[in-house]
Amino acid sequence: MTPLPLCLTMGEPAGIGAEISVKAWRRLRESGPAFFFIGDPRCVKDAPVVVIEAPDQAAEAFAAGLPVLPLPLPAPPQPGRPDPANAGTVIAAIETAVRLCLEGRAAGVVTNPIQKSVLTAAGFQHPGHTEFLGELAGRGVSPVMLLACPGLRVVPVTVHAALAEAIRSLTTDLIIEHGRIVTEALRQDFGIVQPRIVVAGLNPHAGEAGTMGREDIEIVAPAIAALRRAGIEARGPLPADTLFTPRARASYDCALCMYHDQALIPIKTLDMDGGVNVTLGLRIVRTSPDHGTALDIAGAGQADPGSLIAALRLAADIAISRSRNARP
User: Fold this and answer.
1) Count of C-beta atoms within a 10 Å radius of residue 124
2) How close are the terminal C-alpha atoms of the chain, in Å?
3) Global pTM?
4) What distance in Å separates the CA atoms of residue 204 and residue 215, rounded to the nearest whole number?
5) Is the backbone peptide bond immediately before 33 cis, with ω within 30 degrees of 0?
6) Digit-coded pLDDT (tens) for 237-294
7) Contact assessment for residue 55 and residue 5, using Cβ atoms and an 8 Å cutoff
8) pLDDT for 82-92, tens place per residue?
9) Are 38 and 99 in contact (CB under 8 A)?
């Protein structure tokens, strides 16, 4: 277990965040890792709540009830019915979690899903969690999204963009930057001494020697060559349609993919309930479940906590790995 507790933000109050937080606490209350919920205690149902004033009270309280660092909502939460009036408090929960980690009072941040459309309507200027966290706790590089489940790690080089825009924005430098950040994270956060990276081709059959597009020759291949010159074990571009078979997955530690669905389809197919979103390139540890707010089932007791439990466990593992592998 980590010596410090994890922060768990409440996410969208009208979604399933509080429900899966309670279910995760019930599953982890004896084994850990210990965490505390940052949000309105009124969101928490069907579990004893221990209101805390500081993170250092969370570990002692964890076995008795779900520790909650209170942030009252302006409007009462209603399952399935997001209220823009609560957007400021949702954002404040994220800011509080990051601040506590930067102050060394918590081991990492685990974020429950947010409803981006509601935050945007309230004036939120970021596409999502990842970009906002980069502003709050970045290291001078663009944050990188890594998705992980047992047996597979993937990173989309372009993320939340239309496919046409993703192709236009793909550059050799962008692939190199992602390759460097991923390699450092695999060493520091996952304890992999010599990471092995594969790079997916953009086009079918990785371009088929230029007959299906020249991007893999002119953009992707030069990036791989530059990574190899930097001492990084990278290979490709490889056809994405054969990159995720069991035999292929055993040959690498992370796959760099050129666009969102190329990365997320295989990991969600393999383990929809256990996938974890990890943000690389931050000064803090951050993970989240790999699903949304599920407004359609909020309040029905049907939400599966598997991805959140995996996110909490992975955040604790990364925090421990960072402390072991920190550079002098």
Assistant:
1) 18
2) 23
3) 0.91
4) 11
5) yes
6) 999 999 999 999 999 999 999 999 999 999 999 998 888 999 999 999 999 998 889 9
7) yes
8) 999 999 999 99
9) no
